[in-house]
Every structure is written in structure tokens, then in C-alpha cells.
């Protein structure tokens, strides 16, 4: 996606630890017009995948997920995060380890918002190690629903999440693929 690549090149900065900071359009301030194009790109690609619901995790997944749901005319559910285990019988939950923050979160979705008739499109802002996505897959399966696709705004292809998901036959569309952040420089994969 050219507009996204342009935004990354123009406004992205690279932090130590191979972190791409995109706070000016994705992770803090949000560019709604860019999000709309992102949502439309996911909608175009997954149009024939039989999707019934868009699923993401708070906070940064919500903007691209909502614009995807708008373009596809589908509801959007975001998993909530909790520091502690949510033990309630009306939620599906998963434990998600963050390598970036070196902490574990629990994420959960109320059972009323996912069921075995759903075919889910998982959306997230970043795909790095894939832990967040795996948590969303676990929740989807717990509901008896199926994963119809995975849409990622920015994939860091030098981390293992994308390869893991494709090896497990998920249809993953990443709108920007970053092959390297070495020497504080963004190198795209294609
Ligand atoms: P994973 O999500 O693929 O498992 O990767 P990881 O554990 O490394 O990431 C933990 C958090 O850091 C996630 O956000 C993820 O989106 C974010 N992240 C990973 N790599 C980058 C990066 O290069 N740049 C930025 N800006 N974020 C990155 P989160 O903890 O769910 O936070 P939130 O922003 O959604 O609240
Ligand atoms: Na994030
Ligand atoms: Na995220």
C-alpha cells in the first residue's frame, strides 16, 4: 500500500530494539483517511472470504479494525486486556506474552460477541512475534468460530509471527512488510 509506505517513510522513526515508532498516524495520533484506505484494502482482499465479524485487540488494533468493519459492513469486536486472569464463565480468554514489553497480559472477549456461526477476520496494527494474533486465534477457536483471514497493517518479516501463521495455513495479508530496521533505517521487504 503506497500511502502506508509513504507514511512510514515520512513519519516513522526507528527506536533501539528494532521498534518502529509510528505514533503520528497509528499508535497515538490517528490519520483517519489513511485508516480508511487501510480498511478498504483489507475489505477488498477478504471480500470473498465469507467473513461475518472483525476481531482485534485493544488499543492500537481498534482504528484499523473499525475502518475495516465499516468497509465490509460488519461488526467489530476488540478483545480487552487485563493484567490478571479473568476467571468468569461468560468470557473466552487467552494469555499473551509481549516480548517488546516483557510482560504477560490476558485478553478476553465476552461470549455473547462470538459464536460458532462466525467466520472471523483478525486485524492488528503490528505483527512481530505473533503472540497477540495467536491469542485472538485461541479465542476464536474457543468460541467454535473459524478464522477466515488475518489482516496486518505493518509486519516485521524479520520476526517469526508471519512465517508461523502462514505455515499454519492462515491467509495473512500485511499491507506493509518490513524486512529490516537495522541501523535505524526502514527497509521494506518488497
Ligand atoms: P506480537 O504482538 O506480534 O506478539 O509482538 P510483540 O509481543 O513483540 O509486541 C507487543 C506489543 O508491541 C504489541 O502491542 C505490538 O503491536 C507492539 N509492537 C511490536 N513491534 C512493534 C514495533 O516495531 N512498533 C510498534 N509501534 N509496536 C510494536 P500491544 O502491547 O498490544 O499494545 P497496543 O499498542 O495495541 O496497546
Ligand atoms: Na501496538
Ligand atoms: Na496491537
TrEMBL record:
It is found in: Cytoplasm. The keyword Glycosyltransferase applies. One of its GO terms (molecular function) is xanthine phosphoribosyltransferase activity. SUPFAM superfamilies: PRTase-like. InterPro entries: PRTase-like, PRTase_dom, Pur/Pyrimidine_PRTase, Xanthine_PRibTrfase. 5-phospho-alpha-D-ribose 1-diphosphate binds at residues 128-132. Keywords: Cytoplasm, Glycosyltransferase, Purine salvage, Transferase. Converts the preformed base xanthine, a product of nucleic acid breakdown, to xanthosine 5'-monophosphate (XMP), so it can be reused for RNA or DNA synthesis. PANTHER family: HYPOXANTHINE/GUANINE PHOSPHORIBOSYLTRANSFERASE (PTHR43864), XANTHINE PHOSPHORIBOSYLTRANSFERASE (PTHR43864:SF1). This is Xanthine phosphoribosyltransferase. It comes from Fructilactobacillus hinvesii.
Amino acid at each position: 500500500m503506497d500511502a502506508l509506505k509513504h507514511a512510514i517513510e515520512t513519519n516513522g522513526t526507528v527506536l533501539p530494539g528494532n521498534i518502529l515508532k509510528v505514533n503520528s498516524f497509528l499508535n497515538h495520533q490517528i490519520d483517519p483517511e489513511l485508516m480508511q484506505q487501510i480498511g478498504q484494502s483489507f475489505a477488498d482482499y477478504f471480500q470473498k472470504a465469507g467473513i461475518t465479524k472483525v476481531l482485534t485487540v485493544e488499543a492500537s488494533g481498534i482504528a484499523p479494525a473499525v475502518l475495516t468493519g465499516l468497509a465490509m459492513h460488519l461488526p467489530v469486536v476488540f478483545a480487552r486486556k487485563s493484567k490478571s486472569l479473568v476467571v468468569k464463565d461468560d468470557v473466552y480468554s487467552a494469555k499473551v506474552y509481549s516480548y517488546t514489553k516483557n510482560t504477560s497480559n490476558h485478553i478476553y472477549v465476552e461470549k455473547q460477541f462470538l459464536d460458532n456461526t462466525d467466520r472471523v477476520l483478525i486485524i492488528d496494527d503490528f505483527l512481530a512475534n505473533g503472540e497477540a494474533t495467536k491469542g485472538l486465534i485461541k479465542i476464536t477457536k474457543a468460541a467454535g468460530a473459524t478464522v477466515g483471514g488475518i489482516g496486518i497493517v505493518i509486519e516485521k518479516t524479520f520476526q517469526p509471527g508471519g512465517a508461523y501463521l502462514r505455515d499454519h495455513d492462515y491467509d495473512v495479508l500485511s499491507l506493509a512488510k518490513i524486512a529490516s530496521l537495522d541501523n535505524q533505517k526502514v527497509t521494506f521487504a518488497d
